[in-house]
Amino acid sequence: MTCKRNLVARRAGGESLRTLAGGTGIGLAVVHRVVSEADAAPESVQPESISATVSG
Fold it and tell me: Quick check: 27 pLDDT over 80?
């Protein structure tokens, strides 16, 4: 789960899918799926709430 949160947070920070895939060693298709699922998920798993739970 931590890897998914990391991908979503880094994508929200403006990193491209290709940069995320290359930097993590995860396939581009997998990164795309994870980010797309997070975009379609309820607000509770969006990057803003993730950073609030990590820092709080």
Answer: yes
Distance CA(53)–CA(15), nearest Å, equals 22
> Is a pLDDT exceeding 80 seen at residue 1?
no
Q: Which of 56, 12, 49 is nearest to 34 (CA)?
A: 12
Residues in Cβ contact with 45 at an 8 Å cutoff, skipping those fewer than 6 apart = 8, 38
- Judged by DSSP in three states, 13 sits in coil
Domain with 47, as residue range(s), is: 2-55
Q: Is the pTM of this model over 0.90?
A: no
**Domain tally for the chain?**
1
